[in-house]
Amino acid sequence: MENHEWYPATSPLPMATPSRRVLPRGETQTKSPSINESPRMNIRCIRTHHLRDHLDVPFGFSQWYYNTRNTLWVEIIAEDGTTGWGESYGPSEVYQAAINSFYAPRLLGQNAMATDVLWHLMWRSSLDFARGGVMMGAMSGIDMALWDLRGKALGQSVSELMGGRYVDQIPCYATGMYFKDMPESDLIASIVDEARSYQQQGFQALKIKVGKNLPFDIRQIESIRDALPNMQMMADSNHAFDLPEAIQIGRVLEENDFSWFEEPLSPEFEGQFRQLQDKLDIPIATGECEQTRYGFQRLLSTGGVQIAQPDLAYCGGPSEALKIRNLASSMGINVVPHCWGTMLNLAAATHFIASGYREPGRKEVASPLLEFDRTPNALRDELFDIPVVVQNGIAQVPTGPGLGVVVNQEKMKSFTVQQTELKA
């Protein structure tokens, strides 16, 4: 199919000239702000940075093992030098090619402040052959960088741009307890020790991995609950189970008072989520593999998902995450974003949660939860002069302009695999 290029208008449509009021003698005309005078900051340069950290000890989950941590950062620079940073969750090499060869040439010279206009420019440009997948992941990093840039230009945080903050602090749940290459009895002991360490650090909630094999999963669930009887817990299988297995593990999770069952089924079988929920009382959470409001509409309309989990570095960026949240809200479903990667995505998720209304609303509202990955990652822990501050399991919502975190570009150099740059 022919792909027709589409670009947003570069100049406003003609407007009618308002009638001039006759002023009393001695009164002077004051100039009111015009929409045409809102800041315009054209994009001068787009860079991408593929970063990699080699792990001392690999760790895994139901699908594979990690021996490195990778990320793709997007840096967008406006004509006046204002810079925005974003992050894409997924295959860095592919994202880098998509941004540098496809999206960046279409964005150079455009108004960086027009985040929604530019999102739809990218969407329309690749719609015929990429309604989702890696192209949307690439768009997500660009969109996040544009929100960061816009906030810096206006002197406002991203949560303020999203409509304001309901909270200034957000309780975190520690994500960890991944699998390691050791005998299963030793692994369960190691996981329990790790969970205890998060309790000692002040976390009130944590999320374990399941999906290794059913006997192991059941022993792990029971062991960790016995060790930490008062800890709020969730479990994530990373779409490891078929429907009968998910029912079996879900019932074990219910017996051990887990708060939600995450990605119990393959994202390809949307109808099974309702079948599973009809058999269980534990809430079903999913969505990290889903993208766009259209994808979430299909997923949530089954009625089998109680917690939607878009990742802002994958679902379409902050622009699309807001639309996903509105869609979920219209169905009475709350959003707890998936968050994996570095401080850029963590900051974006923090602002998103802080600006979100929790359905159905009440005076003593339940606290939202922020996912805080605790697996080893120097890209997250060593490359920021100003990070998201997390103490005693509580994240402070950044108050600085944009995302509110500051990258140390000098320290980036030792982790850089490849950098690209395109200028207007």
Automatic annotation (TrEMBL):
Specify where the region named Disordered lies, as residue ranges.
Answer: 1-39
> What InterPro entries does its record include?
DgoD-like, Enolase-like_C_sf, Enolase-like_N, Enolase_C-like, Mandel_Rmase/mucon_lact_enz_CS, Mandelate_racemase_C, Mandelate_racemase_N_dom
Record's compositionally biased regions (Polar residues): 27-39
Q: Return any one Pfam family short name.
A: MR_MLE_N
For whether the record's keyword set contains Secreted, the answer is no
The record places domain Mandelate racemase/muconate lactonizing enzyme C-terminal at 188-283
Question: Which of UniProt's keywords are assigned here?
Answer: Lyase
Q: Which PROSITE patterns match?
A: MR_MLE_1
Q: Which PANTHER family does this entry report, sorted A to Z?
A: D-GALACTONATE DEHYDRATASE, D-GALACTONATE DEHYDRATASE-RELATED
* Name of the protein this chain belongs to: Mandelate racemase/muconate lactonizing enzyme family protein
Origin species, per record, is: Aporhodopirellula aestuarii
